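Is this the right way to post structure tokens for a design question? Let me know if I should format differently. Anyway, here goes:
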């Protein structure tokens, strides 16, 4: 404690120096160039009602989310010229509630040699005194990836409408031995005990994924550490790394610089080779600046995932407004590029989720849609004690099932492991088991769950279901999202997704829960209070708008009771453009 005062003083001087240099820049002529927008015809059939997406064109990674002076800010990778990837700028929207968004002009656009081929992903950091800065990756005219910084032109503007590039850019360049074509996506900064800032940049060495570590006294001049924060062999390029603390108890969030004994750290990486993400929970050794994962999960592509469906390039931030950590993720399309061009848009952001450590195990994370989305609930249907006998399909009517929020609790019968058949695929993954089983199979318990975006004749349906299987001499609970019958179209991806639900304990007379957010072409599913999450896309041709139906079903031989099922019709969010 005795050294904290000098450290704080040194840090305050460094930040003051940085902001003085920034002030000089904001008075100079370095404001971003305007981006000319082109007209595009937009097809509404599969557009969402309450998930965020820009009015048209391509969107991918969520970038630099933060809360500032009463507004939530979300930036995102955006092509202002079309519905395919390219010409990447930073789109920018603001919100009071994370649900209703107002669009601003692009925040960062290519304008200098170090980012002229595209302004790629990055993160925001709030420096002491509530000073926001953004680090981002620029694709240089040499095809190298370089890290640069922008700051607000007017930090008193709560909308942060204009950003300027600092004259010291680029701040980080790949040194000899670093693959300059795989050097991107700087993280939010955190402060060490020595008063220096730290960030991580994603990289790879051959097939080893690497989180390169950098330190700085002033957030401008960075020095690469001799060793990475962490790395893992055979995982390929680590995109969009995210590193943050989580408390051992409760569901509150922590500032990224938080220290103490009652917390763990999470390292998440997006695997460019696999196009999905994984995370580990572990310990940050501050004296060595190294992250050591716990041995409770794999530190490779078989590791824990936020979401076992279409969810990529995710980014969290600490919401100091409500003391929580919020997770954003990009939901890409499952149709063809030509389809995207025809409909005039591509890419949606998932509903933001609160994320916290499971305090019972301290081994994995729990997620739940932010409470603000519940403000969109309108007309409600409530059903109780629905006995779902073998082969039952019960319609849940009274709402617009194309945009809905559904919560259901299922009571299971008393189970004995001897009732179940021989072990299923002891070397199979959960996704393989879900694909093999399918919603139409019949076993002792399950499949049972919900049919969403279903046509009246059930020729189209997306099935979100549970199933209990005997797996490696244990009874395990599967959560599956089966898109195999989601559309009569033949040229869309209908992959079935699945995962085991962690730590469900005994199945004796147990109740398990499911929540599903349905939004025209998106199905977000949360099993057992957020222990397992799956996001899927569906492109029905029959189950559109008012012709979409919702059913509870059970194909297992044992009766399952839906003790309580509540379905809300969801209002559309209010998205607009600020002049």
């Amino acid at each position: 404690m005795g050294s904290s005062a000098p450290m704080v003083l040194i840090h305050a001087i460094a930040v003051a120096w940085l902001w003085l240099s920034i002030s000089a820049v904001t008075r100079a002529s370095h404001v971003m160039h305007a981006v000319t927008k082109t007209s595009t015809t937009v097809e509404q059939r599969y557009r969402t009602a309450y998930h965020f997406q820009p009015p048209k064109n391509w969107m991918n990674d969520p970038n630099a989310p933060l809360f500032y002076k009463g507004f939530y800010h979300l930036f995102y990778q955006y092509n202002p010229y079309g519905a395919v990837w390219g010409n990447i700028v930073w789109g920018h929207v603001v919100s009071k509630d994370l649900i209703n968004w107002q669009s601003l002009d692009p925040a960062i656009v290519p304008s200098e040699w170090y980012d002229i081929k595209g302004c790629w992903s990055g993160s925001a950091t709030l420096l002491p005194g509530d000073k926001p800065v953004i680090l981002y990756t620029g694709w240089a005219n040499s095809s190298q990836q370089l890290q640069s910084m922008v700051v607000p032109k007017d930090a008193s503007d709560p909308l942060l409408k204009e950003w300027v590039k600092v004259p010291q850019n680029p701040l980080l360049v790949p040194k000899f031995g670093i693959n300059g074509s795989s050097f991107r996506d700087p993280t939010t900064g955190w402060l060490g005990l020595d008063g220096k800032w730290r960030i991580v940049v994603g990289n790879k060495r051959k097939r080893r994924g690497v989180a390169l570590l950098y330190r700085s006294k002033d957030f401008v001049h960075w020095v690469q550490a001799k060793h990475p924060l962490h790395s893992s062999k055979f995982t390929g390029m680590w995109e969009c790394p995210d590193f943050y603390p989580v408390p051992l108890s409760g569901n509150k969030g922590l500032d990224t610089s938080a220290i103490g004994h009652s917390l763990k750290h999470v390292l998440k990486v997006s695997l460019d080779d696999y196009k999905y993400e994984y995370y580990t929970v572990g310990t940050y050794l501050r004296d060595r600046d190294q992250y050591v994962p716990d041995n409770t999960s794999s530190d490779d592509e078989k590791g824990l995932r936020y979401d076992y469906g279409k969810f990529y390039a995710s980014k969290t931030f600490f919401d100091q407004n409500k003391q929580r950590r919020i997770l954003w993720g990009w939901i890409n399309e499952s149709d063809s590029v030509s389809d995207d061009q025809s409909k005039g848009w591509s890419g949606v952001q998932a509903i933001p989720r609160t994320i916290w450590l499971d305090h019972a195990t301290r081994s994995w994370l729990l997620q739940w849609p932010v409470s603000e989305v519940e403000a969109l609930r309108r007309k409600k249907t409530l059903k109780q004690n629905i006995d779902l006998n073998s082969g039952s399909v019960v319609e849940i009517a009274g709402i617009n099932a194309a945009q809905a929020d559904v919560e259901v609790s299922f009571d299971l019968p008393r189970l004995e492991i001897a009732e179940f058949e021989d072990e299923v695929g002891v070397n199979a993954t959960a996704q393989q088991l879900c694909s093999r089983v399918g919603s139409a199979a019949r076993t002792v318990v399950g499949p049972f769950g919900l049919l969403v975006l279903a046509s009246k004749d059930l020729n189209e349906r997306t099935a979100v279901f549970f199933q209990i299987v005997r797996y490696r001499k244990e009874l395990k609970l599967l959560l599956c999202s089966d898109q195999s019958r989601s559309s009569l179209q033949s040229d869309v991806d209908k992959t079935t997704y699945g995962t085991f639900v962690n730590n469900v304990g005994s199945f004796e007379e147990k109740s398990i829960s499911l929540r599903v957010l349905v939004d025209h072409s998106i199905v977000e599913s949360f099993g057992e209070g957020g222990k397992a999450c799956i996001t899927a896309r569906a492109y029905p041709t029959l189950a559109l708008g008012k012709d979409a139906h919702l059913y509870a079903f059970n194909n297992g031989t044992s009766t399952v009771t839906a003790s309580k099922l509540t379905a809300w019709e969801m209002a559309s969010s209010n998205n607009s453009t600020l002049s």
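Format looks fine. Someone answered above. Worth noting: The two ends are 50 Å apart (CA to CA). Confidence is low (pLDDT under 50) at residues 1-10, 20-39.
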